[in-house]
Predict the 3D structure of the following.
Amino acid sequence: MRKSMRLGFIIVLTPLLILAQGGRGKIRGVVTDQETGEALVGANVSIEGTSLGASTDLNGVYVVLAIPAGTYAVRVGYIGYREVVLSNIRVSENLTTSQDFQLSPSAIEVDALQIVAERPLIQRNTTNTVRITTQEDIKNMPVRGLQNLIALEAGTVMQDGELHIRGGRTGEVAYFIDGVSAMNPMYNSENVTVIQEALEEVQMQAGGYTAEFGGGNSGIVRSTLRSGGSQIRGS
């Protein structure tokens, strides 16, 4: 009886743990010597404002996992080298952000070098069917409402108040919030409304998605909610 209860508990808990990872991405890159190009082994990489971080391996490669979607500053340090802080690094849900670092040798202790990253014009780690709308984009758009935001993307049409992707029916669009389905099972439509100020980013994918996002024959819309940081702020 106890074994059956334990097995049932594991079966119920497993999908909840998987869903809890929704809305997270990762940062991967290489840390090298700016002068020689050699890999720096054991360099410390940390995400400011969080407890997340990693160290580089024998090839100078680091990977920081399970980062909530958002914009961050990354600090890289190594003994005998000048510390670097790179801000404005964007992390998107279920995607890998590539960011390499080059550290310059320093014989004496100096202040960290502050650098602001530029947003890439092309997302190299996504297919051409994925459209990412960031928090900054949402603020600057002249429309209100999630469906109206998505309707501005290529391959979408808003007709009679209903969203269509790739010519499919409105009921063929699946909606997810932080990795959890936001669908009304009775009408097969969006069941949860989120104000734009609460959105960190929105991804619209018109094809090529995996089985975990089933139910969307024409496309899926994935919303990631904003999360708090180490500082009190408002808007």
